[in-house]
Design goal:
Radius of gyration of chain B: 22 Å
Distance between the termini of chain A: 53 Å
CATH class of chain A: Mainly Alpha
Strand content of chain A: under 5%
Shape of chain B: globular
Helix content of chain B: over 70%
Number of strands of chain A: 0
Number of domains of chain A: 1
Number of strands of chain B: 2
Chains: A mainly alpha (123), B mainly alpha (507), C mainly alpha (156)
Largest interface: A-B, 31 and 27 residues
Order of helices and strands of chain A: HHHHH
Strand order of the largest sheet of chain B: 1-2
Helix content of chain A: over 70%
Number of helices of chain A: 5
Largest sheet of chain A: none
Distance between the termini of chain B: 29 Å
Oligomer: heterotrimer
Chain lengths: 123, 507, 156
């Protein structure tokens, strides 16, 4: 139990990531699949940010001169995750644009239906 | 001139990026191709110059600091013999394939989208060159995504011919993103352990961590091992190593012809490079292969890739898909080379990166001609084309011989080094697998060659030989692959330099 | 939705504040939370809101597609231009000291400001392009009606 409580942030990240991963594996609806991918990426964002957090740490803003030495949380993971968010948004956009095209070409966005249609056409 | 030479490592990535943006704005009608062509030609010139610069340095490295921020605070680009070789492969192949692309792309992509096609084309090249040159683990992730995102879209553009391109692309998006995310998680673990993102700096800071293992208080043992595991799996997905190759066959098959050629000859090569970089420079062979025995897993995967990839290639009826499965087998050879981790093995791996890029690129270009002239790449479409497209089909056959590894083709050189590396390590079973793989390659290449030369065509349509703009690049690639089979001193010298650098042998 | 007076009023009153807030985020990026990425998203959100209520075609009348497509590229060109300028002046790529050689430390914020404006413009352009790309052609008025209940309702 102690290992769960001590590292609750990591457990939360793992939970989020695994929910997303499950969705990617199990859902046949392509939009749900892409949403699961976004959840998976969000788990990684939370993971990164929680690695930079220090108990009692403040934002990395310089406090007044002469004040007691402040403890800062690490700002670098936040900056990295800003980039990763942009990448995630772009991935979502590309995936959704392709799915719109799939809907126009096949009339469905369900992977299993698409496979059946292609199978009947004899590919 | 000195200004350009000093900034070469940045320019080689920035030029295609800026030109890609300009292409998306003004590259309408024919102009897009001209801009892409000029950019890739300039990229080729720059990578040749960079290779010369690197080999003339005493320590075989060229460093460049982005924004003049010192590493590890800023992003540093560092070029060494391995980098420079892969840069040469990517820029050479992209220049030759761009030369080819004009008519082929115009026939497969709607005219109104040509500017965006070439913009994405250049972004893809930007990403691939960037992955190769960067010395920063997180920057590598960003560039990986730049190249992947443009690749997804390029694959999806094959929808005009076959709507299967869309499902292939969406499958690729999901698997590719998972791969990149796994890599990102791996970087997070290493950042937790070392507090750095620069590859060379991480490697340095890992040393005291490794030293503490096996003592009373091991530090960060689980963190580093987990990080490496995530990175290895993520990059294996990008590299399409055997059990994780699911996205590759359909993506290669249904993409536009030029895109298939570009992907097959550069994208997986860069993935293999990133894997080599992580194992040898970032984590260190002693940790990855010595302590964790990843090499055994890699050998298993690559052995299975060679056998299963070749076996599945035999069973395909679409020649493009056949080549895609053959690529999976060839990736197995590359992975096997660096899994052996001795000088011959790494040399074989790097030579095969080069040779396979030329051979497979040439074969995909030849198939692109078939697509352009006949309109399909199924086996029955190729029947009896040997007489109608003598040069193109001759090039295809020569490329096929290279895949088998017939002497006097470049495939022979890489397999020679690979087998001698296996024997040096006493791995006779792996040498056997390489030979069995060659026999299987003989079977699938023969199936196609037989159809080309002895198949009977029912429909007596007139098929003309390819236009010169498509024929010349095909012949350049296949010709180069034969040339480097006859006179392999250039490739073996480069690969030897890269192997020495990775194994830290002083030149 | 454009016939609903509440929606019309809410959009009409919200958009100016969103745009001003975006400008604030853009200009105060170095002092507080904010910067080009956030401000670009907020500007795009204002126009997407307009598009959701009044329809994608109406939104594209206000900000035409060619314009947003262009902005997406121009912003990155500003970003890269700042770097190439530094390179041409004999500094490393993106070394903002090139903007003010006499005071390298003071040049850094200026360089960052230029870069942030580039980022803001690009993010606005790309967000609008994404919205256009996904909604254009999926508008029920553009397509023949389908009996699928999962149809998108943008711009209806």
């Amino acid at each position: 139990m102690q290992i769960v409580l001590d590292y609750y942030n990591y457990w939360a990240c793992i939970l989020i990531m695994m929910i997303g991963f499950y969705g990617i594996m199990a859902k046949s609806n392509l939009v749900k699949k892409v949403i699961s991918l976004a959840i998976f990426q969000t788990g990684i964002l939370v993971f990164y940010i929680s690695t930079g957090k220090i108990d009692g740490g403040t934002g990395p803003v310089r406090v007044a001169d002469g004040a007691a030495e402040a403890v800062y949380s690490n700002p670098l993971p936040h900056a990295l995750m800003l980039t990763a968010i942009v990448v995630g948004v772009s991935t979502m956009a590309v995936a959704l644009a392709i799915i719109v095209n799939i809907r126009q070409a096949y009339g469905t966005i369900d992977e299993i239906d698409i496979e059946t249609m292609e199978h009947e056409r004899g590919e | 001139m000195e200004l350009i030479r000093h900034n070469l490592p940045a320019l080689i990535v920035v030029t295609p990026l800026v030109m890609g943006l300009l292409t998306s704005i003004i590259g309408r009608r024919g102009l897009g191709w001209w801009m892409a062509m000029a950019t890739t030609a300039a990229g080729l010139a720059m990578s040749v110059q960079l290779l010369v610069d690197v080999l003339s340095q005493g320590d075989r490295t060229v460093e460049y600091l982005m924004g003049n921020w010192p590493v590890p605070f800023g992003i540093g680009y560092s070029v060494d013999p391995l980098n420079a070789t892969v840069l040469l492969i990517v820029s050479l192949l992209s220049a030759v394939i761009t030369l080819y692309a004009r008519k082929s792309v115009a026939s497969e992509v709607p005219a109104g989208k040509l500017n965006f096609f070439y913009a994405l084309w250049l972004f893809c090249i930007t990403g691939l060159l960037g992955i190769t040159i960067t010395g920063d683990a997180f920057n590598l992730y960003v560039l990986l995504e730049i190249s992947s995102l443009s690749t997804y879209t390029l694959v999806a553009l094959g929808k005009e011919r076959n709507r299967r391109a869309l499902t292939a692309a969406v499958n690729y998006v999901v698997l590719g993103s998972i791969g990149a995310c796994f890599y990102l998680v791996g970087v997070a673990y290493l950042y937790m352990a070392t507090g750095s993102l620069n590859i060379a700096d991480i490697a340095e800071r890992l040393q005291p961590i490794y030293a503490s293992w096996g003592t009373e208080a091991p530090i960060y043992q689980k963190t580093v091992i987990t990080g490496f595991a995530f990175m290895a799996v993520g990059l294996s997905l990008k590299l399409a190593l055997f059990p994780l190759h699911g996205w590759l066959p359909n993506a290669y098959t249904y993409a536009p012809s030029s895109v298939s050629a570009l992907l097959a000859s550069t994208a997986t090569k860069v993935g293999a490079y990133a894997f080599i970089r992580v194992v040898f420079t970032l984590m260190g062979v002693g940790f990855a292969f010595g302590r964790l025995h990843t090499d055994v897993a890699l050998m298993l995967c690559s052995g299975a890739a060679i056998l299963v990839g070749s076996w599945l290639a035999i069973r395909q009826n679409n020649v493009k898909k056949l080549l895609a499965y053959s690529s999976i087998a060839q990736i197995g050879y590359i992975a096997l080379g660096f899994a052996l981790a001795n000088k011959d093995g790494i040399t074989a791996s790097v030579i095969h990166l080069f040779n396979h890029a030329l051979t497979k690129g040439g074969m995909f270009l030849a198939l692109g001609v078939v697509m352009y002239r006949v309109g399909g790449t199924r086996l029955q479409d190729l029947r009896g084309l040997g007489r109608k497209l003598p040069l193109t089909m001759g090039a295809f056959t020569a490329g096929g011989l290279g895949l088998i590894g017939v002497p006097l083709t470049s495939g022979f050189i890489s397999k020679w080094y690979l087998v001698s590396a296996c024997l040096e390590q006493g791995r006779y079973e792996l040498a056997g697998i390489v030979l069995v793989g060659s026999v299987l390659a003989l079977v699938y290449v023969w199936r196609v060659v037989e159809t080309i030369y002895f198949g009977k065509r029912e429909d007596e349509v007139t098929v003309r030989e390819a236009p010169a703009s498509m024929l010349v690049p095909t012949l350049i690639l296949v010709g180069a692959s034969i040339y480097f089979g006859v006179d392999s001193s250039f490739t073996t010298h480069l690969a030897g330099e890269a192997a020495d650098f990775l194994l830290k042998v002083k030149p | 939705m454009k016939d609903n007076p509440i929606m019309r009023l809410a959009v009409r009153w919200n958009i100016p504040f969103m745009l001003i807030f975006a400008l604030y985020t853009q200009t105060h990026g170095e002092l507080g939370p904010g910067g080009g990425f956030q401000s670009g998203v907020i500007v795009a959100a204002a126009f997407v809101l307009y598009g959701l209520v009044f329809g994608g075609a109406e939104m594209r009348r206000v900000v035409p597609r060619w314009f947003t497509d262009l902005l997406g590229a121009v912003g990155v060109l500003i970003y890269a231009g700042a770097g190439v300028y530094a390179m041409a002046m004999g500094y490393e790529f993106l070394d903002h000291a090139a903007l003010m050689p006499s005071n390298p430390g003071g040049a850094e914020p200026w360089g960052m400001t230029v870069v942030e404006y580039g980022v803001g413009i690009t993010v606005f352009g790309v967000m609008m392009t994404i919205f256009n790309e996904i909604t254009e052609g999926t508008n029920p008025e553009d397509n023949e009606p389908t009996d699928d209940s999962a149809d998108t309702e943008y711009g209806s």
